[in-house]
Design goal:
The protein is an alpha/beta fold. The protein has helices at residues 40-48, 81-86, 90-103, 110-125, 131-141, 158-170, 188-200, 212-218, 237-252, 258-273, 282-290, 355-365, 402-407, 415-424, 441-453, 471-483, 495-501, 521-534, and strands at 2-11, 14-24, 29-34, 55-60, 66-68, 176-180, 204-208, 221-226, 229-234, 320-329, 332-342, 347-351, 373-378, 384-387, 459-463, 487-491, 504-508, 514-518.
Length: 535
């Protein structure tokens, strides 16, 4: 158990959060949420002991082992992958170093022999003889080959490094696991494996994530950082979100009878209590939710941007036909005679590990790359807006401020209209006068979405549009794409985003084959699982 007592953090005379009193217990997974800058990562650093709070303390049993997902991707470049993973259990790694030093001594004494025996006993107690098996199992679960165990960390690409560091954090059955954005850079299969791992984990998990499906699957509680306070609520993210929206509505609508609202709340709680989850803690969670009272429900100060795409005209029968499209990038054939046809009403998610193939396809369709072979044809009634994964060309070296930048794409160039539009996208006051080349990653994404909304296109092509966004902005983009009446081609690693937006899934596999299925993402995964079972 971790106990947080009267913890406050103050930067430059301003409280990030204050008077925090919480308890985190074994068998539960706590999802930490909050707007960008609210202090999520700072809170995890305080729990891990990396950062001292301004006031208060974090109390932890000295015998408790805490494991933390490291954020420095280059910290272990001097080690092999196996040694890096083993360092997730510092005591086990220390024993290994001590043993090696003893056994290489030329003047091995009786005292050394006694120490070696003690170390061997502790080594066995910590499952030291299963090191390679356990590390390999973690690597394979995260989609990496066992062949990587003995290579140097400095030979890995960034995505491989992230997975190895995640394996390090999970290694050796720690009592407490702290994870800051563990699903970043993970493909959907690896995220699914991580969900299953954490749901079977018997210790305490505290995780910061922007992945709503992940939070819904693994969390028994939500830790909300808001109003400079930190509070724990029972249930997963969707329960917190819907109850938060409900509380805001209740606060705004004080004229309605309290009894009616309490009845609405009770019905709401009952609905979530009956909701099935594959989590082993689901039964206990439902019992806790049943006991909730009105005073325990969250109310949030968060603001959601407005994301809404309108179409100037309907698409005709001919939308897009791709025929035998092939493209080689850096000597690797990423598209191999790809063919598909887009139909009216399609919202197609391009999924799978081969994200280079998806990005290459989108660039070809938007005229930024030429195919090596094959062709594509857009219907004459289509108008298209593009959201590239890399938006740097729109901002790097640009000295325009936000108002001037957006004015390039707006039909209405009045200051009042542009300020109003940017206000809906959470740019207010002097924010609109900032040069666009100094904006954060999330701010640039909101700018790109604003640009797309100006066009009234009936086809949207979006390459990982939720990257760099917080939960509030992801929710807004998600809702905007669900409500959109045109055609969508998009890629994403956000499970819930795909499942709620797409009505057709196309997977371009690394071997060049394509799986194209109509239906939701969940239905697509069920079909895949069925095929694997038959194989």
């Amino acid at each position: 158990m971790i106990t947080v007592q009267n913890v406050s953090v103050n930067f430059s005379g301003q409280d990030l959060f204050s008077h925090v009193d919480l308890k985190f217990t074994a068998g539960n997974c706590y999802g930490v949420i909050g707007a960008n800058g609210a202090g999520k990562s700072t809170f995890l650093k305080i729990l891990s002991g990396e950062l001292e709070p301004t006031t208060g303390e974090v109390v932890l049993d000295p015998k408790t082992r805490m494991s933390v997902l490291k954020q420095d991707h280059f910290a272990f470049d001097a080690f092999t992958v196996l040694d890096t993973i083993i360092q997730g259990n510092p005591r086990l790694y220390e024993i290994m170093q001590q043993k090696d030093a003893l056994y290489t001594k030329e003047d091995f004494t009786e005292e050394d022999g006694n120490l070696a025996a003690e170390l061997e006993a502790e080594f066995a107690e910590l499952n030291g003889w299963d090191i390679e098996t356990d590390a390999g199992r973690l690597l394979q679960g995260l989609g990496l080959s066992l062949d990587l165990l003995y290579v140097g960390m400095d030979t890995l690409n960034d995505k491989q490094r992230v997975k190895v560091l995640l394996a390090q954090a999970l290694f050796g059955k720690p009592d407490i696991i702290l994870l800051d954005e563990p699903t970043n850079h993970l493909d959907l299969a690896s995220v699914s494996w991580l969900e299953d791992f954490l749901m079977d984990y018997e210790g305490t998990v505290i995780v910061v994530s922007h992945d709503r499906h992940f939070l819904n699957n693994v969390c028994t509680h939500i830790v909300d950082i808001d109003y400079t306070k930190i509070k724990i609520y029972v249930g997963h993210y969707d329960f917190w979100y819907e109850s938060s929206i409900m509380m805001q509505r209740m606060i705004r609508d004080q004229n309605k009878k309290k009894e009616d609202k309490i009845k609405e709340l009770q019905n709401f709680v009952s609905r979530f209590s009956a909701n099935k989850s594959k989590s082993k803690q689901a039964t206990a969670r439902r019992k806790l939710i049943d006991k909730l009272t009105l005073e325990e429900m969250p109310a949030s100060s968060r603001r959601y941007p407005f994301v809404g795409f309108q179409i100037d005209r309907e698409v005709g029968k001919e939308i897009l036909e791709v025929t035998d499209l092939s493209k080689t990038i850096d000597g690797v054939k990423v598209l191999d005679h790809l063919s598909f046809r887009v139909n009216r009403g399609d919202k197609i998610a391009f999924v799978g590990e081969n994200e280079i193939a998806n990005t290459t396809l989108f660039k070809i369709l938007m005229g930024e790359l030429e195919p090596d072979e094959g062709s594509y044809k857009w219907g004459i009634s289509t108008s298209r807006s593009y959201f590239p994964k890399d938006n740097s060309s729109y901002f790097d070296g640009c000295t325009l401020n936000l108002l001037e930048w957006l004015n390039q794409y707006s039909k209405d160039d009045t200051d009042t209209y542009l300020r109003s539009f940017l206000g809906k996208m959470l740019f207010s006051g002097d924010d609109v006068l900032k040069p666009v080349n100094v904006l954060s990653g999330g701010e640039k994404v909101r700018c790109m979405l604003s640009r797309m909304m100006m066009y009234g296109s009936n086809v949207l092509v979006l390459d990982q549009p939720t990257n760099h966004l917080d939960l509030e902005s992801i929710t807004a983009v998600n809702n905007g794409m669900v409500d959109y009446k045109g055609i969508i081609l998009f890629s994403s690693f956000d499970h819930q985003f795909i499942d709620t937006v797409a009505n057709r899934i196309i997977e371009i596999k690394k071997d060049g084959t394509v799986l194209d299925r109509s239906g939701t993402y969940e239905e697509f995964l069920e079909y895949q699982a069925q095929r694997s079972g038959e194989a």
